[in-house]
Write a structure and sequence with these properties.
Blueprint: H1 3-21, H2 25-46, E1 50-52, H3 64-72, E2 76-82, E3 88-92, E4 98-100, E5 106-108, E6 123-127, E7 130-132, E8 137-138, H4 144-150, E9 158-161, E10 167-168, E11 182-185, E12 188-191
Parallel strand pairs: 1-2, 1-6, 6-9, 7-10, 9-11
Antiparallel strand pairs: 2-3, 4-5, 7-8, 11-12
Helix pairs in contact: 2-3
């Protein structure tokens, strides 16, 4: 791991976190409405019957309204639960109760299915700090999603949810970082030139 790249990522993540914290309530409400509509459009257009996604935290572009729509629409939703070994377990989400995992991230309270449950989904929706126009995703530094995507033999489309100003020309990357197939932002859905995310490793 290059110290220069690591430092660059750390500084960029700090800048992005601060930028997210300064978004006004009105801007956040507008982005939630737009992101929800775009996620519904993406999911409907792909005709998916099951998705792996995540419950957004207050500073992230909101996925919660979309996930409630998915549950109400009969789409099977799996959400991640962080493990101490760096892998993700998955559990079904019913749009109601939630808990916190070992990292303090919101998780469902249903039966834990284990890491391989994600292999059955039609679409993966992931968080990101930033994504560039080649599809390279920069996460928040824990590596859970990179490890998950890199281990999948047959990966469905993967879309990251970010704010518009986080979709950039390039991001610092390392060999383990995984690409995504597209991004969903408040302004729209953008398919990217990457093929399978795990082809970027």
């Amino acid at each position: 791991m290059s110290p220069d790249v690591t430092s660059e990522k750390r500084a960029l993540r700090a800048e992005l976190r601060e930028r997210r914290r300064t978004i006004t309530a009105a801007e956040r409400a507008a982005s939630t409405q737009s992101v929800t509509a775009n996620l519904i459009e993406l999911t409907s257009g792909l005709g998916v019957k099951s998705i792996a996604a995540y419950l957004s935290t207050p500073d992230e572009p909101s996925t919660r309204e979309f996930l409630h729509w998915a549950c109400d629409s009969g789409i099977r939703v799996l959400l991640p639960i962080s493990r101490e070994d760096g892998l993700l377990d998955w559990a079904p989400y019913d749009g109601t109760d939630e808990d916190e995992d070992l990292l303090g991230m919101p998780t469902p309270t249903t039966e834990v299915l284990g890491p391989i449950a994600i292999n059955s989904v039609d679409l993966i929706v992931v968080p990101a700090a930033s994504v560039d126009r080649t599809g390279m995703r920069m996460g928040w530094g824990r590596g859970y999603f990179d490890k998950t995507l890199g281990s999948m033999e047959r990966c469905p489309p993967v879309y990251a949810v970010i704010f518009d100003n986080e979709f950039v020309d390039s991001v610092p990357s390392e060999v383990h970082d995984q690409k995504v197939n597209g991004v969903v932002t408040p302004s729209g859905i953008t398919a990217l030139p990457s093929t399978q995310p795990n082809s970027a490793a």
